[in-house]
Each structure stands twice: as structure tokens, then as C-alpha cells.
Amino acid sequence: MPAKMTKNLPIGKGKLGFTVRNSYPVPVKKVWDAITQAKHTQKYFVDKVNGDFTAKLTPVMWTGKKWGSHYQWPVSLQKEKKLVFRWADHSGKYLTTVTFALKKKGKLTELSISETGWKQSHLANAFDNCSGWTIFLDYLKAYVMLGKDLRTE
Amino acid sequence: MATKKNKTVAKKPETKKVKKPKALPVSKGPIRYTTSNTFKAPIAKVWAAAVEKKHLKKHFLDDMKGDFAKDKEVSFFWKDWGWWPVKVLKYAKNKELVMLMPEMGGKYMTTVRYEIVRKDGQTIFRIYESGYPTKHLNNAFMMCEGWSEFHTGIKAYLMGVDLRKA
Fold it and tell me: CATH classification of A14-146, choosing from 2.60.120.10, 3.30.530.20, 3.30.565.10, 1.10.760.10?
């Protein structure tokens, strides 16, 4: 499915947003690579990924059998610390803002994912993504810890 | 007179069971959400992992009292959060479970429903939670996160992995 060029959609200013988090007993670099590099993301969450998240802020496209293709438009990136990108909401009318934040805490690497900008009337979609990002964090765990792909179970 | 009579009737069940905590109201707030995940394993295997104590202790709970299949009330235990009483409203093996659970502030109960179906060679396990008042939207998001982890915990468990220890 070709991805729609969504870059010029308005940025969602809705007040709805959420944060999910998890922690990983591996170095920050390992988590960072797993979330920003296509070769990793494809192994545990997305069916096909075009592009890596880098300081050049070039778009990354995720393609899923279930959800089709979606561009992610990076806004800022601080290596091994923070990645902010925008992508279209379910209605394709505006962009929500997604922030990945990493922090070393003792022997653990904490990763939180926030998504903001949802319209009040799109609460159900926000919950869908809350669940989706939580699943992402868990699948990431199985991947970085054990090299397992939970999609196949 | 009528009020007094109703009060007496309402109080009775409470005094019968010594250990039973104060009955909480069932909240009918408008905030609801659904989580779901798919599994290769057959329905019976996913269902057992989701409701039986011996499985739940290996991926979700630290302990459990009662049996969903037999009891009207069971209790979940986590070391970090203590015991949580769960009222079982409906139990249809390998199909549906409806229960009332106290919300995290302990002021009211929300309704949680498990539903499990087999479609296109996959088992789909959905969890519906409803009843949060608008002011507790963030708690609903946290629970959405929690139930989503419950699904993935089961997936990992069926693969022989306890994600809590990973």
C-alpha cells in the first residue's frame, strides 16, 4: 500500500495524550539501536521499515500487514536520549507527536513513549495507540533481552 | 420506612462474610477502552493462561485466591500493590469472563470483560474495561497499558518466557 504524503498535515493540538514506559536491563545504546534502526524494528514489531531515524531527520516509513504504510516525520533527535516524530492520526486529518525518551537508571535503561495532540473525539484511537505502544515496548523487551519475536507466538 | 427497609436489606450480605471489604459502587463513567492481541495457541491454552492461578502466577500475579471457574469472588495479589478483590459476574469457559475490579484509588469498581474468539487460524483475546469517570482518564490510560502488558505477558509465557524477569 503506498503511503500518503502526510508531512503537511496540521499538527494536532488536542489535549489528549498518554505515556507508556518500560525498563530494560541492557545498555542504552542497545535499546536506542533497536528502536531507531530498520534492521532491528523489523525483527520484532513492524513488518517492513524504510529508513532509519538519524540526525538527518529523514522520514521513516512503517508498513504493517494490518495497518498499511505510514510515514513518520522526525522533528528532533538526540542520540541515545530522545527522538520526537510526528505521524498521521487514524483519520489522516492531523499529525500527533510521538516522543521516545531514554534514561539510564542504575543497571536499567528506561524508555518512555508519549503521544500527544489527539482530539477529544478521537479518544478511542488514542487508546488504540496507547495499547499499541505498550505492545511495542514489550516486544522490544523480548527482542533485546532474548532475541525473540513475540509476533510469531 | 421504605428507605430504612432497603438499607437493612443492603447491609445484610456484608455482615455475613467477615473478611469481605466494604462494597464499592460500580462506576458507570463514560471512559472505556479495548485492548487485544492475537495468539497462535488454541483458545483453551490462552484461556487457561489468562484465568488459572497456576499460570497467572508465572506471568502476571504474585499470588491469587479463589478460582474464576467456581467462585463469585477471587483476589489478585501483587507484592507492590497488595490484595485486590475481584467480583466475578460471568464465567463462560473459553469464551467470556466479566468481572468487577476496584480502580487504583479504591473508590469504585470498573467492569472488565475478557472475550476470546478464534478467527483465521488465530486466537483473538480482547479485554474491555469501562466505567471510568472523565476526571480519571489518565488512570484509564494506565490500565490500558497494564492490560496490554497482560496480553504480551501471556504471549511470552506461552513461549516459555516470563517477561517480568526479562
Answer: 3.30.530.20
pTM score, whole prediction: 0.91
Cα distance between residue A126 and residue A104, in whole Å: 28
Q: What's the rounded Cα separation, in Å, for the pair B140 and B145?
A: 9
Q: Is position B117 within any domain?
A: yes
Backbone phi, psi, residue B120, to 5°: 50, 45
Q: Are A54 and A44 in contact (CB under 8 A)?
A: no
Tell me if B153 and A145 make a contact (CB, 8 A cut-off). no
Looking at the partner chain, which of B41, B141, B153 has a beta carbon nearest the beta carbon of A130? B141
Residue B19 has pLDDT above 60, yes or no: no
The CATH number for B68's domain is 3.30.530.20
Pick from A133, A100, A98: nearest CA to B35? A133
B139 touches chain A (CB under 8 A): no
Number of structural domains (chain B) is 1
Angle at A125 between CA B129 and CA B149, to 5 degrees: 50
Q: Measure CB to CB from residue B163 to each of A127, A130, A138 and give the nearest one.
A: A138
Return left, alpha or beta for B83; rule: phi > 0 is left, psi -120 to 50 is alpha, else beta: beta
**Which pLDDT tens digit goes with each residue over B107-146?**
999 999 999 999 999 999 999 999 999 999 999 999 999 9
Distance from C-alpha of A143 to C-alpha of B90, rounded to nearest angstrom = 37
pLDDT by residue (tens digit) across B25-69? 999 999 999 999 999 999 999 999 999 999 999 999 999 999 999
Rounded to an integer, what distance in angstroms lies between the CA atom of residue B148 and that of residue A130? 9
